[in-house]
Amino acid sequence: MSSPNLCYWTIAQTGMVVPKAEGMPGTTKTKSIEAFARAMGRRCYALIGSLREPADIGGYPYPVEVEPVMDPVSGKTVHAYMALMPPKWAMDTWDGGAGWIIFIDELTTCPAAVQAALLGVIAEKRVGDLVLPPDVWIVTACNPAGVAANGFELEPPMANRLWHGKWEVDSEVWDQGMIGGLRFGEPSFPRLPAHWKNNLARNGALFAAFRWANPNSFERYPEDRAKAGGAWPSPRSWTNACISYTALEAIGAGEEHLREAVQGCVGEEARSEFFHWKNALDLPDPEHLISLAMEAKQNGAPIDLPLPTGSDRIIAMMGAVTDRVLHHGHTQERWEAGMKILYAVWHRERELAMVCGPHLFTGFKAGWQGSTRFMAEAHRLMQRAGMLPGGE
C-alpha cells in the first residue's frame, strides 16, 4: 500500500481530524484534492486564505429585532441582538446535495486574524452562527512558510488541531499523462471502510495506557516557538493521533504509515516514544484469556489468569479484551468471560478496573450475568457505563 499521500487521503475521510499537506508550489496539490473529491462523490470548495478577511470566515454581524424580552441579568428590556451571518460558501453546504469537502488552501498565507477565524471552521465546523453539516470533510494544504507569498508560520492553536504531512507528487500519474499527450488520468485513493470506528475504543485504551506509562509525553509544548507551528503533544493532538492511527489501521496500512499517522499529530519525538513503548508491551493474546475464562466457568473452577504486570499493560490488555468481546463475537458466553477477566483486574487494583471497565459493561444485555458479587461491588463501574442512573 504505497499510494502517495495515503495518510492524508485516509485521515480526511474520518471527518474528525483535519489533515494539512505542505509542499512546494506547482506540485499538483489543488488538482489532486479536486480529483479526490470527485472520486469520493463529493463537491469541493476551495477557500483560499490569502483572499479572505476574518469576516469572510467568521461571519458578518447584523442586528436582529425580536419581541421585547427581559434580560435576567441586567433587568433591562431587550429589543434586538447581534447575530453573525455566514457567507455563501458556507450556506452552499446545506443545499441538500452530495457531501462537500472544504479545501482551505494557502494556509501559510493567512495572517493571525484569519487563522483565528478559521479555528471555528476547523475545530467546530462553525461559520458565524451556522454549524456545517457533520458529514462535511475539511482538508488543508499550503506551501512552506518560507516560500509562500507573504508567508506566516501557523499559530500554535491552529497547528495543534491539524495532522501535518509532507506532500508527495504522484509521479506515476504525471508520467502516464505526459506520455498520453497531456491526458492525465484520475489517481486512485484508498476508501475508509464503514466500520472503521469499531477499533477506536481498543486503540483509545492503548493510547491511554501509554499516558499512564509516560505522563511526561502527554503534554509537551515546544520550547522552540518555530516548532509550535507543527505537530506537538497535547491531549487534543494525542486524541487526533488515536483517530488517525485507527483510520490507517482500518485500511490495512503498514507500520510505516501508522507511524506517519501518529507523527503528524504529536511530532517525531513523541511518536518514537509511543512506538518504542508499544512494541515492548508483549501482551497476552486476548482470545487466549477469553478461552481460559470460558473454560473456567464451564468447569466451575476458579480462574487463574496470566495478567501482565504494570498499570499500562493491564489497561492495554483490557482494551484488547473488550474489543474482542464487543466486536468479534458479542455473545453472552464471551461477555461473561470478559467480565471474569475484569473481575481479576478488580481484585488486583480497583483503580485500573474503574478506568478500563465501563466500556465492557456497555455490552450487557438483559438476562446476562456476571459474578453476582462483582456486580454488587462494581456499582460505580455500572454507573459510568450508563447502566444505572447516576443517583442510585
What does this molecule look like?
The protein contains 18 helices and 9 strands. 36% of the residues are buried. Among the domains are: 1-54 and 94-189, P-loop containing nucleotide triphosphate hydrolases (Rossmann fold, 3-Layer(aba) Sandwich), CATH 3.40.50.300; 286-384. The radius of gyration is 25 Å and the shape is globular. Strand 3 (60-70) and strand 4 form a beta hairpin. A 5-stranded parallel beta sheet has the order 2-5-8-1-9. The longest helix has 17 residues, at 311-327. The model has no long low-confidence stretch (mean pLDDT 87). With 392 residues, it is of the alpha/beta class. Helix content is 45%, strand content 13%.
Termini gap: 52 Å
What is the CATH domain class of the domain at 1-54 and 94-189? Alpha Beta
CATH topology of the domain at 1-54 and 94-189: Rossmann fold
- Main-sheet strand order equals 2-5-8-1-9
- Count, helices: 18
Return the average pLDDT rounded to an integer.
87
Major β-sheet, in short?
Answer: 5 strands, parallel
Strand fraction: 5-15%
Shape: globular
Structural class: alpha/beta
Spans of 5+ residues with little confidence (pLDDT < 50)? none
